[in-house]
Amino acid sequence: MQHPVQWEVEALEPDELQRLVLAAVDPYIDRDVLARQIACEEQQRRALEDFAGRVGRGGR
């Protein structure tokens, strides 16, 4: 069993903190679920951009 490691977050450089967090969560990421979620978010983003473009032109 590994012993917990403790740092003061403020003492870490942002890049190092990001590396540590990503390394800690990476084994738990379901890549298929992540890919579907990213695709859904991209579709929503395109729909929102389309809507904003129509509103900006004063149309529907």
Folded structure, characterized:
With 60 residues, the chain is mainly α. The chain has a domain at 28-60. Helices cover 63% and strands 0% of the residues. It contains two helices and no strands. It has helices at 14-25, 31-56. The model has no long low-confidence stretch (mean pLDDT 91).
Q: Number of helix segments?
A: 2
The description of the largest β-sheet is: none
The residue ranges in which pLDDT falls below 50 over 5 or more consecutive positions are: none
Structural class: mainly alpha
Please name the defining characteristics of this protein.
60 residues; mainly alpha; 2 helices
Topology:
Elements: H1 14-25, H2 31-56
How would you briefly describe this protein structure?
This protein is 63% helix and 0% strand. With 60 residues, the protein is an all-alpha fold. It has a domain at 28-60.
